[in-house]
Design a protein that fits this description.
heterodimer; A: Glutaconate Coenzyme A-transferase; eight-stranded mixed sheet; three-stranded antiparallel sheet; B: alpha/beta; Glutaconate Coenzyme A-transferase; three-stranded mixed sheet; 5 helices; 14 strands; acetate CoA-transferase activity (chain B); 3-oxoacid CoA-transferase, B subunit (chain B); EC 2.8.3.8 (chain B)
């Protein structure tokens, strides 16, 4: 059965107050067309889990500018001044998470783990309120798993079964987030028939993907 | 003798810390200049935390899917490899990156580093910096010796929120090279444009000053590149 749906069919899948994970690093590997659809639809009070908030007009940026997000969990917001403005004004809650910890928390959420132990953030504000554990004489922070209602991802190519291939540095958080959401929707540039992707080439197995939307190449 | 800029001096001196074959992550800004000054015969592999090794200058064609950790167009050398953020930070945290070079707002005598926020002024987020300092085998802070207003940046104790505790191995500024030891900060080298007294005056932390303080290395490299 094909997982490919039209952009119009997508709209009914989004609701207010959803927790959404979004792939991309500084907008590269971000589902730009899906962001545009979310902006047009106007769903609000979203919780967004993403590497960074890119710039006001790239990646997840337009969603922030359009004030559809009430909480952001990210590692970097400095390149999108609107995120910082909303945070300081108290309009949006921002939880800053070290980027490697963010990746591991999402992986834990998708890999059936109760959390991860990391040395990252020890002795900094990141450790506040978190449990510390000693393993073989070394101290670690317990970081808890993250999951979302929806993951919105970007891949280069998919087959109709949802197997994914990414290009260059556009992979980033996408494969990890494919594990950690109840509904996984992927924007791709090209869709091919089942069997056209060699199993050894597949970077994210299609069993993790629920919907594929072909949006072509956006430069 | 020609006078070199602070950036040139710092980048060139840091480049001298690289060993052939090192896997290195260079932070945004000044640290990225380091790769321009590698001594002959020293080849390093640059890791880009957004998901690849083999970071190269951008080629003749810009690929929108290939950027560096600052989001700017980048290239990738033959033999490079791309991967996801999980693998990228497993490399960083797991001790597979030999050296990371970062800028600093403050460093203190216990090797603490603050470089990710100024409360009330600038809260960009830590990005990958906290993972880099927690996991790289050697953490070099490359920064100007004092702040723009002249305030000391090498302190007894950092006043800004930390990026990492006890993580810094070496501080390289345009004035000096300072090693973080279990006894405190040891002055290793000074630039030919300064004196030990000036370095001490511009450093709030107490410096351990050996009988012989070396001349800052790297100048010959700069002069050679000039030719």
């Amino acid at each position: 059965m094909s997982k490919v749906i039209s952009q119009e069919e997508l709209v009914s899948l989004f609701e207010d107050k959803a927790t959404i994970m979004m792939g991309g690093f500084m907008g590269v590997g971000a589902p730009t067309s899906l962001v545009r659809i979310l902006v047009e639809q106007g769903v609000k009070d979203l919780t967004l889990i993403t590497s960074d908030t890119a710039t006001p007009d790239t990646g997840v940026g337009p969603l922030i500018v359009n004030r559809q997000v009430k909480k952001i969990i990210a590692s970097h917001i400095g390149t999108n001044p609107e995120t910082g403005r909303q945070m300081i004004a108290g309009e949006t809650v921002v939880e800053l998470v070290p980027q490697g910890t963010l990746a591991e928390r999402i992986r834990a959420g998708g890999a059936g783990l109760g959390g991860i132990l990391t040395p990252t953030g020890l002795g900094t504000v990141v450790e506040e309120g978190k449990e510390k554990l000693l393993v073989n004489g070394k101290e670690y922070l317990l970081e808890l798993p993250l999951r979302a209602d929806i993951a919105l991802l970007k891949a280069y190519k998919a087959d109709k079964a949802g197997n994914l291939i990414y290009r260059q540095s556009a992979r980033n958080f996408n494969p990890i987030m494919a594990l950690a959401a109840d509904l996984v929707i992927v924007e791709v540039e090209e869709v091919v028939e089942v069997g056209e992707l060699k199993p050894d080439e597949v970077m994210t197995p299609g069993i993790l993907v629920d919907k594929v939307v072909c949006c072509g190449r956006i430069s | 003798m020609k006078t070199y800029s602070a950036k040139e001096l710092i980048a060139c001196r840091v480049a001298g810390e690289m060993r052939d074959g090192d896997v290195v992550n260079l932070g945004i800004g000044l640290p990225t200049l380091v790769s321009n000054y590698l001594p002959e015969g020293i080849n390093i592999t640059l890791q880009s935390e957004n998901g690849f090794v083999g970071l190269a200058p951008v080629g003749s064609e810009v690929d929108p899917d290939l950027v560096n950790a600052g989001g700017k167009p980048a290239g990738i050398f033959p033999g490079g490899a791309t991967f996801d953020s999980f693998m990228s930070f497993a490399l960083i945290r797991g001790g597979h990156v030999d050296v990371t070079v970062l800028g600093g707002l403050q460093v203190d005598q216990n090797g603490n580093l603050a470089n990710w926020m100024i409360p009330g002024k600038m809260v960009p987020g830590m990005g990958g910096a906290m993972d880099l300092v927690a996991g790289a085998k050697k953490v070099i802070v490359a920064m100007e010796h004092t702040a723009k207003d002249g305030a000391a940046k090498i302190l007894e104790k950092c006043s800004l929120p930390l990026t990492g505790k006890g993580v810094v191995s070496l501080i390289v500024t345009e004035l000096a090279v300072i090693k973080v030891t279990s006894e405190g900060l040891q002055l290793e080298e000074i630039s030919p444009y300064t004196t030990v007294e000036e370095v001490v005056a511009k450093t709030e932390a107490k410096l351990i000053i050996p009988d012989h303080v070396g001349a800052m290395k790297g100048l010959e490299q700069l002069e050679q590149l000039e030719k």
